[in-house]
Structure prediction request, 662 residues.
Amino acid sequence: MSDREHLEGEHFMSGDEACSEGAISAGCRFFAGYPITPATEIAERMSDRLPEVGGTYVQMEDELGSMAAVLGASWGDAKAMTATSGPGFSLMMENIGLGVMLETPCVVVNVQRAGPSTGLPTMVGQGDMMQARWGSHGCYSIIAISPDSVQEVFDLMIKAFNLAERFRLPVLVMMDGAVGHMYEKVVIPPLDKIHLVTRRRPDVPPGEYWPYMPDEDLIPPMANTGEGYRFHVTGLTHDERGYPAMDPEAQDKLVRRLVEKVERHRDEIIELEEDGTDDAEVVVCAYGITARVATIAVERARREGTRVGLLRLITVWPFPEDKIKSLARQVKAFVVPEINYGQISLEVERSVAGMARLALVPHMGGDVHNPATILEAIRQVIK
Amino acid sequence: MNVLAVTDEAREKHPLEDYLRVDRLPHIWCPGCGLGTILGAFLRGLLKSGLTPDKVAVVSGIGCTGRVAGYIKLDSFHTTHGRAIAFATGLKLAKPELKVVVFSGDGDLAAIGGNHLIHAGRRNIDMTVLCVNNFNYGMTGGQFGPTTPETARSTTSRAGNIENPFNMSALAAASGATYVARWTAAQIHQMEKSIIEALLKKGFSFVEIISPCPTYYGRMNRLPTGLDQMRYYRSNSVVRHGANPNEVGAGTNGQIVTGKFIDIERPYLPGPRDGENGG
Ligand SMILES: Cc1ncc(C[n+]2csc(CCOP(=O)(O)OP(=O)(O)O)c2C)c(N)n1
Ligand code: SF4
Ligand SMILES: [Mg+2]
Prediction:
């Protein structure tokens, strides 16, 4: 291994740079993308770093092609990723759906900027959280995670590749322009301290292999291209052999499994951070950069004597509804600040199911919340 | 009906049987469609090329032609409409020892996937694209597309197409392909030979195969059966190797110039490596 394969040690870098380094340390060896602010630095660093570690950087003609190339590379035995922002994320949705259907491990990073459309190209937003969940057509489950610091970007890139390889699907890393462009200290641990997962391979000979025959955990082993398995995979509804099966029964069986393979493993997937929620009367629920801004409001409210907890969603999808439900039985109210007009707050509302009050603190983007606004929402909601 | 019972032992094995998913037959293609003929030529060409079949991957987009991937018994991918070349680009770059073949329709490659086609040519990605040009969107019921000849009728141009068609071979050549040939489905041997050359060519090789779609294009343009269309191709096509692809449009209202138009060397991606399957 060359010493460039894993930059162990202390660094001062941006979230976008840490994203690339996390990917490299996770074993990512293929990047396909199309430049877009505020994700461009990820592509730039990958174009430098991948050749150093025997990987491939390809700059595609658009994000439709980028996402398709990432899937192709994953079937070519590479841990593969792309990085984009809102406009590109929309274009990737088509083949994120194919990734779900073909059960293709890969990582898609969205360094969110403020939309809709071209919006504020260089400035922070969190408006793609529902698109992450529902953006491709049809019915499926997805995994999305959201870092709030440069160190966590590094850590979550490793987690993202591990989840993708384990569950065979595109994992979405929902960064934001603030975290992407922020510079902070990052500690890259020694490689033997990093747990890496790789896709399960079939343990049957080619003649006996069915590409979509799942193991007990609902995840089918994935054959490698060019090893004589002669598999067929299709975006059409298919049976366990991978053959098109044009009937409602096959559809039911396949889609249920695609959803269940995520939902059944919620406990394994979901990661949350809680601070002072045990005896809280109010819980602020936030993710990404907004969670850090919320910390300031939470501290001020505590100084005012309010028992406020912070629930930080590291995993956003699948949504940690059980956690919210159990907190809802204990607290008076939830406060949900996010840089959009209310997306994750809808999920909180659904999970709370009337058991507690809820205050959305929307912010349209371009900058982060003023902590005073969140503090005021905390004051109002317990009045 | 008189059904002849043939036991497994008595049945003579089809020479391509090992490379077809016979458990998926009968296929979905219409009687008289050119796709079966072209698939046969591809598989024969592949076996004659000397490439290791297990190191060949086929990628298709969506359409009647896109279904080819599902009948070929090799590692095969049926992807999204237009994205076959982009998917194949990732596959080839990640695993250069594979020979990657894209098998797709004219609509898939020239309309929704046109951007990927020209950029794959520009990059000169080492892959072979087999473009089945039936002058329309067959799968969705015979609408006009970017290759439909001017004045030709389709289910969305009943009074005659008013748009100017793409010349697929010229488009591939202009984009930078190192090998470009055009044949009709009636020229089976030339097509097969060209497929072998394309498979063994380094860089972006492109074979356009003009194919009958009797169900839609043919029926709407006074060539109602596959045989009518094949006869038309036979009597209206000429072979002109080395012809300037810009000067040899293809359609069903004039002469169809066929042949090998381009066969050049140019640096390609990914660069040459040991153990590569691709001659
Ligand atoms: C994004 C998208 N748009 C439209 C379609 C519908 N569609 C399926 S096949 C097809 C046209 C295929 O035409 P062509 O590539 O020429 O293949 P042919 O059927 O003629 O072989 C279209 C428009 C689709 N599947 N996906
Ligand atoms: S619609 Fe046309 S292209 Fe499609 S199978 Fe029928 S004849 Fe062939
Ligand atoms: Mg067509």
Observations:
- The longest strand of chain A covers residues 106-114.
- Chain A touches chain B through 42 residues (CB under 8 Å).
